[in-house]
Dolichol-phosphate mannosyltransferase (Paractinoplanes abujensis), 406 residues
Amino acid sequence: MTITADSSSTSSTPVASPTAIPAPASVRAALRGTIGELPVATALKQTIVVPTYNERDNIGTLLERLAAALPHDGTEVVFVDDSTDDTPDVIRAAAADCPIPVTVVHREHATGGLGGAVVEGLRAARGEWIVVMDADLQHPPEVVPALVAAGRRDGADLVVGSRYAGGGSSRAGLDGGYRRLVSGGSTLVTKVIFRNNLIQVSDPMSGLFAIRASSLETEELRPLGYKILLELIVRNRPGRIVEVPYAFQPRHAGESKSSLAEGVRFLKHLAILRFGAKRARMLVFALIGVSGLLPNQGTLWFLHEVANVHYLPAAIIANLVAVGWNFALTDTLLYRDRRQHRRFTGRITRFFVLGHADLLLRLPLLALLVSGLHVGVLIANLITLLVSFVVRFLILDGVIYRARRP
Ligand code: GDD
Ligand code: MN
């Protein structure tokens, strides 16, 4: 990992002791630095942040076109790379011929995927404006100056490069009806869910945007996958947002990194952004619980109706099957990231104990509701299931799969 040297290295230079040079009596206050000189952190006009994952054949053209489009002074390009190929070496080689200073941050762990990489780039950036764009030339480098100019002119915090604003287009870049359908559908769903945040934004899925560095709060961001612009808008709530239309281009070289897994990650991102992480987990736990009704009833039906087993042992076995089903889904889908904290046997035994303790809680509660308070049996049963659901989730979330600092 290389990061261009910054002022922090100067702290090691020896400082003269106060007694060595007595301060002249006429000096009332000492000013740090030179008047009229901007601190290093904001000395640049713009930083172009480019996330890369195996994009070796796009780097040369991208840098050439950026250098042709942008002033060479006051600009820097920061690549944040998670590649498994030699992309970082290709970038370093191309940087030698590039009139704009180029930095590569190569990450050992691709935490947060594309969004995580972008946030890393936002932190490293030193420009007053930060432009985020893809490496594959689907975002024409020639529109970058227009993004920053629009932000300055309109006093905006965020400028979104839009395929859907008047004058923009997505047709060339979204090859095939399937991709257009997925893109259009997810944009619509997102706009409905976050309508208040997205009133001014026609293309919330865009990977091309410019943000005023002073409006950024990177500590607030919890990036997860592709939709980093949405994350920024929802969590950082930029003041004024404007759009610049552009035509989405076909990919220059290589292939797209988006996949079905990325689609699932996007749904997770949406749920976390909308409900908060814990309530999103509870929602998934509820869906898994509802899905457990299927193996439960199915097993009961088979044992009781087909195999003629007495309904009580049949119900207990059916319950066991359902708990197993729930465990499989919970362990692989819901807590995939927290599994490593506890061994498999530890997780499954606790899960099954919880599933049975559930009966210990529910049966007395059922008796209390029905015999004590004269609640109808079905309603009472439903109440015990709901109470048990919340209690079990809290134990699961806070004990069995407790989050730990890495
Ligand atoms: N560092 C890093 N880490 N970069 C990544 C990763 C990752 O895990 N995954 C993808 N990238 C980089 C790619 O190398 C490329 O520069 C950029 O992110 C976009 O990836 P593509 O694979 O080209 O994505 P896409 O064309 O399907 O999606 C683009 O368009 C969408 C709109 O249709 C992206 O800009 C999306 O953000 C955008 O929503
Ligand atoms: Mn692309």
